[in-house]
Amino acid sequence: RAFTIVDRHVVLQQRREGVAYKVWDASFVLSDYMEKNSNVHWKDARVIELGAGPALPSITAALLGADTIATDLGEVLELTSFNLKSNIDEQHHKARVEPLHWGSDVSALGPPFDVILGSELVYEQAPAHLLLEAILALSGPTTRLLMSYKKRYVSQEDFFVELGKHFDIEIVPRNKLHRDFCRSHSNIFIIQASRKQPSCSA
Question: Which residues have a Cβ under 8 Å from the Cβ of 123 and sit 6 or more positions away?
């Protein structure tokens, strides 16, 4: 699939087999929002994408000037790495690929990050409790979380209820989404969140 990101022609390889190998619409909507509507200062921000797959949000972050790590597992990383190398000029942009198993030690990645990205991470077979554990381990008091998804499962709402115990969550207004997905029938959402701050004692 081909996209125009930050005035660059980006071509991504994907595969038919397996959900992790596809560029989902929610990933495109997130990338478009990152470029056009988010208020994140991307230049030199430290960014990590979870479950990157074809890595469109990671590529977008790198092209916007962020120091980006795209993470996934196993054979998916081959596709992630190929797409990064095909679309990122290493002399002018910072992006690399790292394996990450949710729930494992993340200290080698150097948390906390300024921004955590995720697209279509919550589905029926996904270990949501480990995803939450990874997000908490990678974040700090000032971390911003940007996640996109198409509403499909009850488990998605259960995950965001648990996430809301640790993060203040805001649903991005539909008029901020790409024009092809701003209608309610698209059922695609973006949430942005920041860590809850300790309340001041009396």
Answer: 19, 152, 153, 155, 156
Q: What is the CA radius of gyration of the chain?
A: 16
State pTM to two decimals.
Answer: 0.93
| Contact (Cβ atoms closer than 8 angstroms) between residue 157 and residue 124 | no
Cβ neighbours for 153, distance < 8 A, ≥ 6 positions apart: 122, 123, 124
Angstrom distance (rounded) from CA 55 to CA 71 = 9
Over residues 106-123, the mean pLDDT reads 94
Under the banding of pLDDT at 50, 70 and 90, the label for residue 22 is confident
Burial of 62 (0-12, 13-18, 19+ CB in 10 A): buried
Q: Tell whether the model's pLDDT for residue 31 goes beyond 80.
A: yes
What percentage of the chain reaches a pLDDT higher than 70?
Answer: 95
Question: Given this model, what pLDDT does residue 201 score?
Answer: 58
74: left (phi over 0), alpha (psi -120 to 50) or beta: left
- Please give the order of strands across the beta sheet that includes 94-99: 94-99, 67-72, 46-50, 115-119, 144-150, 188-195, 167-171
